[in-house]
Amino acid sequence: MKLQKIILLELQGLFRRKFPTALLLFGIPILYVFLFGHAYKSGVVNYIPAVIYDQDQTAASRALTQEFIDSERFQVVAQVTTREEMEQLLRVKKALVSISIPPKFAQNIKLSIGSEVLVEANSSNNMFANAVIASSQEIVQTFAAGTGQKLLEGINQMPAPALQSALPVRLGVRILNNPTASYTDFMLSGLMANGLQIAILLVAGTLISKEYSCLSRWRGTSSALIVAGKLLPCWLCAIGAFITGLGYLTASFGVPCRGNLASILLLGSAFTFLVTNLSFLFSAITHDEVSSVQVPLLYIMPGLLYSGVSWPPFAMNHFAQFFSSLMPLTYMGDTLRDLLLAGYSPTLLKNIVIMFAGGSGLGLITGLVFSYRRKKGQLPSAKEMLV
Fold it and tell me: Taking the domain 48-176, which CATH number applies?
């Protein structure tokens, strides 16, 4: 009977509280399926930005170019006339793939010498690099088979022997930045950054909310000064944690570090500044220390998926891209990986500015919320109590 009574009371507690705990139990899995489902809704990575460098400019090379344009896998963003233009588009990530058609492409096919089409793929993200290689092979092989068959039929060979006799176009593949397609290099820096932001939330998440239970402690001190006094040591420790984590993954797991160390440190400083201020805001608006930790974790957990660290942003739908813009890791994960693997990130300065500006804005809101709630719950001074 006592067991039944305990069970009944607990069930009532799950459903009858002001905010029923059962809503979390049933709602969070559904919420995460909704969020993750939108990120993966396309199912495959299509419309990968590509640049074509056609050095032959013949009917045959234009036909091959059209094959890439017609493919759903690629979105041809430019057709250039120099290698410098092609490399610049790859460098600034306006294109993630380049297709180079060699000079004398058509002539070599007619002479049965054969030509090699070179596909270069940025493999800092393995998701689209693998798709690029597979699709390029399919396009080039189909084009080569059709071209070779027509050539040999022209010299009176039957269609079947002709198809078996000649494949005059070959595919060359060059993988940039992560040539071994290592998942350690691909994922580890993003996982480290995600772990860092969770750690900051757990440590900084209670620093403001706990002040509501002892408002008299800092009587006469401005709210802005209290928030700043809590922010600086927490932020500096978070920067130290970033440096430690980065040193560990490069020293112990062989992840390359090709970027400028000052740039990497500035990026880490901006990221930890943003996440610390975000933690403070959640801490300022929640009712108690437990909520100040639980609520931000619900928000931050989808961050790894939406950040572009694993699934590329261009493969997400509009809702997922908008949600991604609200995640701190979006401005950190892919940029950090570019710095480590390629030594350069075209979004570095932009993302640093966004994170410092966002952190400053969140810090201002935190100060205003804390000041308002502090005044609302401020205890009277001893002099006021005597009066």
Answer: 3.40.1710.10
Q: Tell me, what amino acid is at 148?
A: G
- 37-95 tens-digit pLDDT: 655 555 567 788 899 999 999 888 888 888 888 888 888 999 999 999 998 998 888 88
What does the domain layout of the chain look like in residue ranges? 48-176, 183-378
pTM higher than 0.85: no
Query: What is d(CA 109, CA 117) in angstroms, rounded to the nearest whole number?
Result: 12
What does the DSSP 8-state code read for residue 220?
T
Q: Own/partner pairs for 242-248, CB < 8 Å, 24+ apart?
A: 242/196, 242/268, 242/269, 242/271, 242/272, 243/268, 245/192, 245/195, 245/196, 246/189, 246/192
d(CA 156, CA 329): 62
73 phi/psi in degrees, rounded to 5: -70, -30
Report strand pairing: 74-80 vs 48-54: parallel
d(CA 327, CA 311): 14
Closest residue by Cα to residue 334 from 133, 93, 97: 93
339-382 pLDDT tens trace: 998 888 889 999 999 999 999 999 999 999 988 888 876 534 43
For the chain, the C-alpha Rg in angstroms (whole number) is 29
* The most confident of 52-56, 207-211, 269-273, by mean pLDDT: 269-273
Sheet of 48-54, strands arranged across: 74-80, 48-54, 97-101, 115-122, 169-176
CA neighbours closer than 13 Å in the CB half-sphere of residue 262? 1
